[in-house]
């Protein structure tokens, strides 16, 4: 007999690698690692966030298919929350799902997490001595780091890594051409994994235009050789456009980094894709 299932959007301690994920979500099927809803995120101060549905901001999370049995267990954890039917956006379009939310009045005394991302917020709060950073565009090369005089942050190169479920695309359009992005479409991409000191985070967020809404922080699992590195910081384009070709200088930086660290098969694939794109 087929089990009844529901689609669930999670944004806090049920996220992959978070406190309750292994206990409650291990039998659930991931539908989207990059998902978001209209809402505001708040820190309860007790080790977990809460979400208020709101048109004025965005909450980032993950989308899963869960059994009714699993949802019942989550109901017990989320006692006092509203189980609400909402529209969830993904790279493959909108989906209807349930999410656990609270009303605006209950959040009035809580600290808002302006980024809308629980993992990003925790990284800034914890301030670890170092973290992993996954680069897939021009940051695979060190030219920009040297220009900004921050190359000392990026000396510890773990190596070329692979990322499942995503494909490198060029969706950030500028007057001179596009910039790289990763789109969750079930594919596979490659990039360079660094271990960087926490002090590098301000440079990365500024470089990627996080405060301006150009890219947003995201956290992915990257495989280098036989080892999986969990929750590596990367950045995804917020407002994706139809792809066009990147400018020559940007393409050159991608190719330099790729030639040093990435597989021959991927280098051929990314060159072929860039060749196929219309020039601005």
Automatic annotation (TrEMBL):
<dbReference type="InterPro" id="IPR013024">
    <property type="entry name" value="GGCT-like"/>
</dbReference>
<dbReference type="GO" id="GO:0003839">
    <property type="term" value="F:gamma-glutamylcyclotransferase activity"/>
</dbReference>
<keyword id="KW-0012">Acyltransferase</keyword>
<dbReference type="InterPro" id="IPR017939">
    <property type="entry name" value="G-Glutamylcylcotransferase"/>
</dbReference>
<dbReference type="Pfam" id="PF06094">
    <property type="entry name" value="GGACT"/>
</dbReference>
<protein>
    <submittedName>
        <fullName>Putative gamma-glutamylcyclotransferase (Bacillithiol degradation)</fullName>
        <ecNumber>2.3.2.-</ecNumber>
    </submittedName>
</protein>
<dbReference type="Pfam" id="PF13772">
    <property type="entry name" value="AIG2_2"/>
</dbReference>
<feature type="domain" description="Gamma-glutamylcyclotransferase AIG2-like">
    <location>
        <begin position="8"/>
        <end position="119"/>
    </location>
</feature>
<keyword id="KW-0456">Lyase</keyword>
<dbReference type="InterPro" id="IPR009288">
    <property type="entry name" value="AIG2-like_dom"/>
</dbReference>
<dbReference type="InterPro" id="IPR036568">
    <property type="entry name" value="GGCT-like_sf"/>
</dbReference>
<dbReference type="GO" id="GO:0016746">
    <property type="term" value="F:acyltransferase activity"/>
</dbReference>
<keyword id="KW-0808">Transferase</keyword>
């Amino acid at each position: 007999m087929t089990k009844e299932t529901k689609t669930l959007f999670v944004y806090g301690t049920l996220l992959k690698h978070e406190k309750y994920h292994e206990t409650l979500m291990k039998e659930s099927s991931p539908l989207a690692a990059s998902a978001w809803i209209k809402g505001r995120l708040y820190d309860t101060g007790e080790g977990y966030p809460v979400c208020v549905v709101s048109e004025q901001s965005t909450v980032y999370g993950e989308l899963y298919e869960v059994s009714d049995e699993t949802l019942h267990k989550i109901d017990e954890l989320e006692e006092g929350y509203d189980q609400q039917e909402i529209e969830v956006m993904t790279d493959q379009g909108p989906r209807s799902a349930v999410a656990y939310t609270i009303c605006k009045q209950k959040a009035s005394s809580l600290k808002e997490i302006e980024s809308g991302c629980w993992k990003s917020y925790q990284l800034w709060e914890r301030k670890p001595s170092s973290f992993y950073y996954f680069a897939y565009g021009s940051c695979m090369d060190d030219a920009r780091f040297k220009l900004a005089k921050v190359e000392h942050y990026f000396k510890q190169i773990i190596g070329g890594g692979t990322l499942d479920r995503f494909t490198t695309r060029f969706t950030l359009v500028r007057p001179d051409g596009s910039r790289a992005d990763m789109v969750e479409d079930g594919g596979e991409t490659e990039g360079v994994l660094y271990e960087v000191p926490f002090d590098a985070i301000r440079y990365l967020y500024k470089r990627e235009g996080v405060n301006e809404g150009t890219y947003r922080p995201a956290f992915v699992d990257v495989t280098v050789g036989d080892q999986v590195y969990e929750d590596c910081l990367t950045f995804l384009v917020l407002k994706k456009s139809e792809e066009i070709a990147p400018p020559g200088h940007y393409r050159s930086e991608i190719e330099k980094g790729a030639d040093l660290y990435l597989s021959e098969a991927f280098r051929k694939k990314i060159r072929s894709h860039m060749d196929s794109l219309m020039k601005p």
